[in-house]
Amino acid sequence: MKKRFAFAAGLVTALSVPFVGSPFQSATVSAEAPEGFVELFNGSNLDGWHGRPHFSPITFAELTDEERDAKKAEWQSDAEKHWSVENGELVNDGHGAYLVTDKDYRDFELRLQYRTVPKADSGIYLKGNPQVQIWDPTNENQFQHGCEKGSGGLWNNSAGAPGKDPLVKADKPFGEWNDVRIIQVGAETSVWLNGQLVVDHATMENYWNRETPLFVDGPIELQTHGGEIRWRNIQLHELSTAEANEYLSEPNADQFTSVFNGTDLTGWVGATDGYEVVDGAVRCKKGSGGNLLTEKEYGNFIARLEFRLPPGGNNGLAIRSPLKGNPAYDAMCELQVLDSPHPMYANLDQRQYHGSAYGMAAAARGYLRPVGEWNFQEVTVDGSKIKVELNGTVILDTDLSEVSEYMADSAHPGKDNATGHFGFAGHGDAVEFRAVSIQEL
After folding, report:
1. How far is CA 344 from CA 312, 339, 396, in A?
2. Could you count the other beta carbons within 10 Å of the beta carbon of residue 86?
3. What is residue 404's predicted lDDT score, i.e. its pLDDT?
4. Is the pLDDT assigned to residue 13 strictly greater than 70?
5. What is the distance between the alpha carbons of residues 29 and 44, in angstroms, rounded to a whole number?
6. Domain residue spans of the chain
7. Residue 226: what pLDDT?
8. Do 38-246 and 256-440 come out as alike in CATH topology?
9. How far is CA 32 from the centre of its chain?
10. Can you name the residues that pair with 292 across neighbouring β-strands?
11. 327, 311, 425: which is closest to 368 by C-alpha?
12. N or C: which end of the chain has fewer CB within 10 A?
């Protein structure tokens, strides 16, 4: 059973302790920003916003400074012709450039209200990526595109992908204000429309390049075309690391079993002398380490954990490992746990960076939190397939049975292991782990 995540200002349970908050209660948008939220729209003018049409951030970044300046001036001029402020409401006439926040955001909760007209078509871009859909569910001309299912879905996700269609139709009649609540952590998105959950922890695909994950951060963008739309009470709360990690730990939490008690190494074998338990986390002893493994063996499973890196930190997750040998080769794989941005690692093979199946498959980079912050990672092992989700973004999704080229031509005899131990492969750095739990598949 899934819990319904609800933030309460100042009341966020650390992930090392099971979440015991009350079930979700719909949070409606209010005229005054609640504690912890800021107003993105001041009700008077367009300060904090600028014009931009449906334009790829990737292409925009590739322009010269002069080209970017020219584009921004052109788009801003267009936006000023079609956007206005009336009675504290942000109004677009259904034409012109969209409106984009000057600031970029990574993990956040966004609340706003909108009111639109028949046959209008709009949306909310998250991190500069389309979009949480807003449209007329009665427009028969759009039935072929699914408008009758209602607003709030991630319409630009691939056909059949989770989140593309809203779970329920929750639109209010025309003339009434609609409440929208969005939680975005990494690429993971949840949307409530008028208090009803319409998207539940779905991965937002990168529309601009579906071969790569969603951007780490980006602006909020209000899309408008096809008819007047009004916006008000646009409020945003940037999530703390603890809030973001708690949100990511929510789905199916009752199906996971803790394998680390936060007090001692009961249930673990191997290099127990190379690790210590400090403040509810298991930490590799500096200058020591080795392979710390669960007593129990696992075949197909999902593992969840938090980890924290010191500068230059290096460790690994042993997947289906034997009790002896090097997990990088003798286990199914060792998933790198590494401070990838550190200068000392500037020239590694791509298959050595964080989240990679060491020496076999490279993970997408750039999704670690700053050194010293707790990262949330989920690893799914199913047959020969392995998926790694870091801080809400899938950075590796591969089938190791299809790997035929290895770093340095080194053999990986354990790659086809059907079962084995889970654990940590320490390399002498004080890397910490906590909230370690496993769901067997």
Report:
1. 7, 9, 23
2. 8
3. 93
4. no
5. 19
6. 38-246, 256-440
7. 83
8. yes
9. 28
10. 270, 424
11. 311
12. N
Structure tokens at 19: 């979440």
What is the average pLDDT score of the chain? 93
**pLDDT beyond 50 at 286:** yes
Q: What pTM did the predictor assign? A: 0.92
Q: What CA dihedral angle connects 407, 409, 413 and 419, to 10 degrees?
A: 20
Query: Strands 108-116 and 83-86: what pairing?
Result: unpaired
Residue 3: pLDDT above 50?
no
357 residue type, one letter: A
Q: In which residue are the tokens 């690994």 written?
A: 316
Using alpha carbons, list the distances in angstroms from residue 211 to 221, 335, 357, 394, 423. Answer: 22, 21, 19, 11, 30
Using one digit for the tens of pLDDT, what is the confidence trace for 103-145? 999 999 999 999 999 998 999 999 999 999 999 999 998 898 8
Q: Which fold has domain 38-246?
A: Jelly Rolls (2.60.120)
- Domain 256-440 CATH (choose: 2.60.120.560, 3.40.50.80, 2.60.120.40, 3.90.25.10): 2.60.120.560
- Count CB atoms within 10 A of the CB of residue 255: 13
CB 273 within 8 A of CB 255: no
Whether the predicted pLDDT of 96 surpasses 70: yes
Per the CB < 8 A criterion, the answer to whether 206 and 98 are in contact is no
Q: For the segment 237-278, what is each residue's pLDDT rounded down to a tens digit?
A: 999 999 999 999 999 999 999 999 999 999 999 999 999 999
Q: What mean pLDDT is predicted for residues 8-14?
A: 35
How far apart (Å, rounded) are the C-alpha atoms in residues 244 and 260? 21
Q: Which carries the bigger pLDDT value, residue 2 or residue 309?
A: 309
Angle at 251 between CA 249 and CA 252, to 5 degrees: 110
Q: What is the separation of C-alpha 265 from the centre of its chain, rounded to a whole number of angstroms?
A: 31
Band (pLDDT 50/70/90 cuts) for residue 23 is very low
Q: How far apart are CA 337 and CA 340, in angstroms?
A: 9
User: Beta strand pairing status for 420-426 and 229-238?
Assistant: unpaired
> Are 407 and 360 within 8 A, CB to CB?
yes
d(CA 75, CA 21) in angstroms, rounded, equals 45
Please tell me the total number of residues recorded for the chain in this structure: 441
The residue with tokens 């709360």 is: 237
Q: Give residues with Cβ within 8 angstroms of 297, minimum separation 6.
A: 320, 419, 420, 421
User: Looking at residue 29, what is its pLDDT?
Assistant: 67
d(CA 411, CA 15): 38
